[in-house]
Amino acid sequence: MRIVVTSIFVQDQEKALEFYSEKLGFVKKEDVPAGEFRWITLVSPDDQDGTELLLEPNVHPAAKEYQKKIFAEGIPATMFGVADIRKEYERLMEKGVTFTMEPTKMGEVTIAVFDDTCGNLIQIVQK
Description:
Strand order of the largest sheet: 1-4-3-2
Number of domains: 1
CATH superfamily: 2,3-Dihydroxybiphenyl 1,2-Dioxygenase, domain 1
Helix content: 25-40%
Radius of gyration: 15 Å
Number of helices: 3
Number of strands: 8
Strand content: 35-45%
CATH class: Alpha Beta
Structural class: alpha/beta
Distance between the termini: 24 Å
């Protein structure tokens, strides 16, 4: 068994697609109508057959409340691995990404946290 798709709640699918593709550099894999919304997934450019990230509309009241509360508590919705966190931090800063935590060493890993502009905090980690 392996993880094929994981999702993240977003306030606006189009805005999220733009942020995750243009700012973060993920590649759109699927974009098909799904009722009133779309089934939009992205993948890492380095692993286009790997795990897909689904941009899930947060239309359900429970999803909105969950997203709002973890954001308010400073809890990242998900984590992405990077090879060089300082380099990635600088690259994202140049693209206008707002960080709530700059790269910080925590034991064996270094982490940083940014705002995805779609209701989530995202953590990047270098092992």
